[in-house]
């Protein structure tokens, strides 16, 4: 088949025409320059081989055989390259398609020279050993190049022509890299944020160059990295005539260590660019004990276990605007209204890649195109609908989530897509996600699984995980105080992915309603049947609660986000017979009145209710009978009116309730007596309720209680003596109960108590001697003053460990801001 593929002038001519086309288009079209540079390098490298084989064929007078296949490939390649010059700069879809075709052309050329060329030479070597010997040496050299990279493969790339907003971050990253304690520095950010650009700038920095000289190796890592190949590339960049053939990864690292020693007296810097999650083993292999040797890793994942991690920040508004203007206008000077530029910057989420791509697509366009583009965005069209390159860049971060995390118990991608249920620019409480994921994915109720998944998403730079408040160093609820923040553009990506499926096939239905305009599919006659498990509806401040009918019988999670002062729960909730979790959040400034509250009482399978910033009406036994309810969370709610009922039969309407969380409810003055009838209750957490002054004596009836928390209830003066009846209580938190001066003598009866938190209890005058009976007590967390009282009883409490917390100067117990 391949005996005479290079025979005749036709083949040589076709090869030269392809080469000429590649050179011409590379010089005139910037869009494909990177891919064409690689093809040009391949063609130039194999040209001597082609010339030698042509000469050998003439000397041997070889007959012409099947040349048509490769001739056709070369001719089609030339046509493809020429077509690239006709692609318009704004046509990103065509640019993406042709980039794929060029990549295929490059692979087919490399494959031919590696396989068919060798077959050709092997056969003709039997006819003339002398001629083939010289050509064979060239084949070996070229095959080495094709396998290990072209000369300079690991050389530091040049920096982009225009860079903005990276000056301060360059200095921070440089200080981190030059810190003697850090051998591995991980530079991380989502795709399209400029990680590789910053790494290139760092490697070209005058100070860095002065330290490492020519010993900087810049290697782009594939999704499935080959360690031996990476080390071969490094060797090839230092000595192209001698590239070792390593027997194993261990051999490759050993040879690399020897190379580092030969590079002395100057140290070496290895840049591993674009390392994917799951490739930590590669970084570990390069942790070599060699004076001055450093490894800089760029990745979408933070890899926080390594020495030092630097998260690249997004551009600020000013720098983002500068970058957009540079991409969109000649000389970077806008010729459209400033508010249009600001709208585009906001739509791009300050992502450098998005700013470049969108800016280039609008370059030279009249103002009306800018108006049209921003108008479409405001109407709900996704930025990804018209920018496929941007979509593919960011979507790759989601694709890797299809692989389950080794640390987690659910599909990370499913987990991440659920975050789209919450509005943009809002903190997502980890406890709300925990409620959802417990029912969707059967996670543990202590929050460990949820927090592990959020940490994994944070490490992959898909969210920012923040700890807004640390509640008593609590390990009974790992999610409490944690919030996830999702970048606008990444949330847009989530919504775009959800919307790819037909409405009736979506597992998640996320709806964002502006004003009172409902989607057409919802109001038209032939409304599609919904099969979503999760339904999220977000409305703005002008929504009038004019709900249209809907039939969502399979919904298990309902998330309602609103901003109005009066909000009516949708009447179609009655049809959600399988509803398990209800999350209602008011994102407006003022407390909201919640109407149609009685509909919640018809959700017989409801297990978890979370209400935030709403005024709850009077609770009536005849209205709320939720026999499967397990958990209630009330955050910044007005509860005084709802808790006034003296006839409320709590054990009858909530017989299986095991957890109550009340946070920042400023009108809670006394805990209702009927709370104490919830005998199955295991966890009662009341935090930042700074008007709470008293607890009912009947609290001792909660004999199944395991966790009791009164964190930052600053006016609570004491505990009733009946607390001694809580024989199963394991954790008691009295932190920042500022007016609590004494503990009741009956506290010694808490035989199961293992942890007690008392930091910030500055009025405590002493402890009753009965604390010596707390034989299971393992941990006491308190401030220095209180610790003296506990130390008086250390000899009786053999298991007890006292942890002293230094008092924070910011007095966080005064915090009354939004949770």
TrEMBL record:
PROSITE patterns: RPW8. The keyword Calcium does not apply. SUPFAM superfamilies: P-loop containing nucleoside triphosphate hydrolases, RNI-like. Coiled coil: none annotated. Keywords: Leucine-rich repeat, Plant defense, Repeat, Signal. Residues 1-20 form the signal peptide. Residues 1-151 form the RPW8 domain. One of its GO terms (biological process) is defense response. InterPro entries: AAA+_ATPase, Apaf_helical, LRR_dom_sf, NB-ARC, P-loop_NTPase, Powdery_mildew-R_dom, WH-like_DNA-bd_sf. Belongs to the disease resistance NB-LRR family. This is RPW8 domain-containing protein.
């Amino acid at each position: 088949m391949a005996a005479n593929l290079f025979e005749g002038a036709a083949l040589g001519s076709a090869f030269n025409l392809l080469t000429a086309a590649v050179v011409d288009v590379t010089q005139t079209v910037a869009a494909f320059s990177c891919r064409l540079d690689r093809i040009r390098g391949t063609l130039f490298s194999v040209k001597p081989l082609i010339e030698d084989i042509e000469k050998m064929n003439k000397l041997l007078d070889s007959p012409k055989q099947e040349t048509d296949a490769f001739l056709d490939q070369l001719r089609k390649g030339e046509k493809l390259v020429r077509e690239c010059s006709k692609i318009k700069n704004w046509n990103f879809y065509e640019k993406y398609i042709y980039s794929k075709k060029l990549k295929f052309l490059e692979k087919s050329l490399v494959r031919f020279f590696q396989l068919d060329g060798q077959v050709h030479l092997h056969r003709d070597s039997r006819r003339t050993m002398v001629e083939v010997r010289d050509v064979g040496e060239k084949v070996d050299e070229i095959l080495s190049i094709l396998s290990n990279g072209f000369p300079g493969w690991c050389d530091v790339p040049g920096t982009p022509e225009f860079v903005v907003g990276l000056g301060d971050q360059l200095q921070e990253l440089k200080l981190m890299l030059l810190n003697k304690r850090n051998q591995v520095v991980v530079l991380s950010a989502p795709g399209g944020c400029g990680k590789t650009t910053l790494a290139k700038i760092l490697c070209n920095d005058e100070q860095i160059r002065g330290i490492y000289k020519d010993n900087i190796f810049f290697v782009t890592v594939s999704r499935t990295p080959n360690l031996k190949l990476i080390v071969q590339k490094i060797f090839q960049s230092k000595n192209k005539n001698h590239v070792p053939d390593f027997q194993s990864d261990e051999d490759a690292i050993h040879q690399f260590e020897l190379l580092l020693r030969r590079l002395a007296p100057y140290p070496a810097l290895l840049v591993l660019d674009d390392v994917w999650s799951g490739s930590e083993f590669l970084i570990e292999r390069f942790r070599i004990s060699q004076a001055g040797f450093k490894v800089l890793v760029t990745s979408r994942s933070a890899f926080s276990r390594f020495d030092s991690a630097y998260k690249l920040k997004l551009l600020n508004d000013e720098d983002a605007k500068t970058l957009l203007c540079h991409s969109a206008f000649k000389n970077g000077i806008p010729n459209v209204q400033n508010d249009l530029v600001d709208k585009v910057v906001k739509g791009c989420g300050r992502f450098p890649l998005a700013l470049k791509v969108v800016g280039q697509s609008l370059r030279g366009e009249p103002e009306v195109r800018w108006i049209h583009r921003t108008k479409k965005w405001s109407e709900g069209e996704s930025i990804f609908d018209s920018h496929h390159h941007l979509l593919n860049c960011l979507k790759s971060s989601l694709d890797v989530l299809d692989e389950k995390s080794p640390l987690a118990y659910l599909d990370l991608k499913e987990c991440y897509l659920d975050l789209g249920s919450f509005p943009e620019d809002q903190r997502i409480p980890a406890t709300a996600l925990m409620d959802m994921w417990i029912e969707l994915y059967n996670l543990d109720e202590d929050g460990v699984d949820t927090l592990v998944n959020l940490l994994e998403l944070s490490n992959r730079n898909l969210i920012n995980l923040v700890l807004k408040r640390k509640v008593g160093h609590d390990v009974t609820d790992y999610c409490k105080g944690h919030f996830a923040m999702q970048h606008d553009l990444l949330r847009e990506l989530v919504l775009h992915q959800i919307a790819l499926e037909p409405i009736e096939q979506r597992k998640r239905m996320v709806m964002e309603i502006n004003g009172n305009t409902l989607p057409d599919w919802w109001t038209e006659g032939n409304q599609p049947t919904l099969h979503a498990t999760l339904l999220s509806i977000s409305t703005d401040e002008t929504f009038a609660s004019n709900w249209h009918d809907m039939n969502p019988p399979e919904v298990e999670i309902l998330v309602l986000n609103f901003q109005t002062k009066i909000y009516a729960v949708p009447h179609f909730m009655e049809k959600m017979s399988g509803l398990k979790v209800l999350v209602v959040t008011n994102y407006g400034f003022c407390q909201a009145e919640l109407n149609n509250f009685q509909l919640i009482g018809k959700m017989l399978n409801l297990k978890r209710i979370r209400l935030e910033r709403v005024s709850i009406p009077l609770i009536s036994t005849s209205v709320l009978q939720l026999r499967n309810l397990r958990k209630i969370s009330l955050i910044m709610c007005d509860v005084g009116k709802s808790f006034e009922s003296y006839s409320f039969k709590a054990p009858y309407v909530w017989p299986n309730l095991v957890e109550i969380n009340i946070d920042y409810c400023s009108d809670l003055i006394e805990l209702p007596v009927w709370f104490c009838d919830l005998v199955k209750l295991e966890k009662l957490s009341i935090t930042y309720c700074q008007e709470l002054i008293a607890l009912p004596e009947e609290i001792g009836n909660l004999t199944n209680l395991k966790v009791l928390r009164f964190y930052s209830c600053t006016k609570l003066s004491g505990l009733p003596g009946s607390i001694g009846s809580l024989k199963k209580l394991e954790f008691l938190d009295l932190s920042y109960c500022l007016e609590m001066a004494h503990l009741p003598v009956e506290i010694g009866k808490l035989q199961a108590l293992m942890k007690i938190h008392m930091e910030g209890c500055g009025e405590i005058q002493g402890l009753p001697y009965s604390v010596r009976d707390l034989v299971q007590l393992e941990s006491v967390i308190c401030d220095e003053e209180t610790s003296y009282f506990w130390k008086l009883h250390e000899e009786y409490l053999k298991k007890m460990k006292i942890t002293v917390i230094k008092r924070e100067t910011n007095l966080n117990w005064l915090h009354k801001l939004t949770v």
